[in-house]
Design goal:
The chain is an alpha/beta fold and about 230 residues long. Helix content is about 40%, strand content about 30%. The chain has a five-stranded mixed beta barrel, surrounded by five helices. α1 crosses α8 and α2 runs parallel beside α7.
């Protein structure tokens, strides 16, 4: 039996719809954690809320206190390209924390954690990314731009793509992947586009439930073979 830690930012209702009543609901560190048995495994789903700080704290809590074997994340994202508007379902291969900037003092590119990574990109666990694609061949590898800002304007999305060569944007993956990497715990993030390149908050809100459900369904299939 494996022990999975899943982080859900704003998509917790999809978890409740799929898995129903948990074995127990725990409040720990200011977070609600839902404990399930699914596919013969222990699953701890933590409702982090939006943002990098909460996502990083949530990841560390699942690792340090609940001793999960791996960190999984699913959720909805914004598209930064016309191509991703059509693809929609993706697995995060690497993430850039685009709001992290020590370039003035460290003389490095914006987004680079100079002492930890050789480039601006922080990788998810390659073996899990490859496994995810074998389980669900429609998944496409994506580069994620992650920061503490909801990006709704088309011109801002285009700028993120231009500067960081990113395909999608959201608000938690940098905190999750960086923390998991520092703890040497495998991590995987499955994402689905809710708002297109020219979409914004209204499109996001309209698509949240449907895209969350579909994204979690794919993650559930992956967990069955992990």
């Amino acid at each position: 039996m494996k022990k999975f830690g899943i982080i859900a930012a704003v998509e917790i209702d999809a978890v409740k719809r799929r898995y129903g009543k948990p074995i127990e609901k725990i409040n720990d560190g200011g977070f609600d954690i839902y404990h399930y048995e699914a596919n013969g495994n222990d699953v701890y789903v933590l409702h982090s809320g939006a943002g990098e700080i909460s996502a990083a704290a949530a990841t560390q809590l699942l690792i340090s206190v609940y001793h999960v074997d791996m960190i999984l994340n699913f959720g909805v994202v914004g598209s930064l390209t016309k191509e991703m508007d059509d693809i929609r379902l993706c697995v995060v291969e690497k993430v850039v924390h685009y709001q992290f900037d020590t370039s003035e003092v460290d003389h490095c590119p914006v987004g680079q954690y100079l002492e930890e990574y050789p480039t601006i990109y922080m990788p998810a666990t390659k073996e899990l990314v490859d496994l995810a694609i074998r389980v669900e061949p429609t998944l496409v590898k994506a580069t994620c731009a992650s920061g503490d800002r909801f990006v709704g304007k088309a011109e801002d999305k285009a700028a993120l793509h231009e500067q960081f060569d990113a395909d999608i944007c959201e608000m938690e993956a940098a905190g999750i992947i960086k923390t998991a990497n520092r703890n040497h715990v495998p991590c995987l993030s499955i994402k689905m586009v809710s708002d297109s390149l020219h979409g914004g908050a209204e499109e996001f809100e309209a698509a949240l439930d449907e895209t969350s459900d579909k994204c979690l369904a794919v993650l559930d299939e992956i967990m069955k073979v992990l």
